[in-house]
């Protein structure tokens, strides 16, 4: 049983990861500004209100932790202005983890980040850049900062996220030549993250997760 810190735990993939990790028997420290509002009941859950941009908050949250899941998100309305959350929070997290001796980091970024950008199909490329360009430029900076670290990292790059329960039927595309966009449930992403924390099968690598491929 590991002690996990999930950053961005109040919604989306972060919340699903909290649920999946608890279901797998792990202890979970759920970090978010609204962590106190997480409506889950489990003796292995610790709600930890904090700001991902605050060095003291992050340092405190890392105490006694075995692995970190970084699953930050921004509201849709914020995608059309400057986005700095992903890189700024990572610039706080990475040195704090190195100082605390916590080596394992699973960071959720997205399909289209870093070297997966070239895999975006021509029909998807323009709308993707118009809507998500600023956020993904910042995710690029997030990944670059992590790559420069001494951490045992994995980048999880899900395709287009959907709701609903985990299906267990998804593809883990871990070769650059296989990367493509597709749909995947947040709960399936969370299941993969927990498995990756358990077995560390993709340390120092990026994987794309999809259930059903989209037309290129």
Automatic annotation (TrEMBL):
Protein name per UniProt: NAD(P)-binding domain-containing protein
Lineage: Bacteria, Pseudomonadati, Pseudomonadota, Alphaproteobacteria, Hyphomicrobiales
Classification via SUPFAM superfamilies: NAD(P)-binding Rossmann-fold domains (SSF51735)
Domain NAD(P)-binding: 8-199
Species name: Methylobacterium frigidaeris
Pfam family, one: NAD_binding_10
């Amino acid at each position: 049983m590991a002690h996990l810190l999930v950053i961005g735990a109040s919604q989306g993939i972060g919340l699903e990861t909290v649920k999946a990790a608890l279901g797998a028997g792990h202890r979970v420290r759920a970090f978010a500004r609204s962590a106190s509002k997480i409506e889950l009941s489990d003796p292995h859950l610790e709600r930890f209100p904090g700001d991902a941009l605050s060095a003291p908050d992050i340092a405190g949250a890392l105490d006694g932790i075995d692995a970190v899941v970084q699953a930050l998100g921004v509201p849709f309305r914020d995608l059309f202005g400057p986005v700095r959350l992903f890189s700024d929070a990572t610039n706080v997290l990475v040195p704090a983890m190195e100082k605390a001796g916590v080596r394992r980091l699973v960071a959720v970024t997205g399909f289209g980040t870093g070297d997966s950008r070239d895999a975006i199909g021509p029909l998807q490329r323009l709308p993707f850049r118009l809507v998500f360009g600023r956020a993904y430029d910042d995710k690029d900076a997030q990944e670059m900062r992590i790559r420069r670290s001494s951490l045992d990292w994995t980048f999880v790059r899900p395709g287009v996220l959907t709701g609903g329960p985990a299906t267990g039927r998804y593809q883990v595309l871990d070769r650059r030549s296989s990367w493509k966009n597709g749909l995947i449930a947040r709960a399936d992403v969370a299941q993969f993250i927990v498995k990756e924390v358990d077995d560390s099968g993709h340390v120092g690598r990026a994987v794309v997760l999809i259930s059903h491929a989209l037309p290129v």
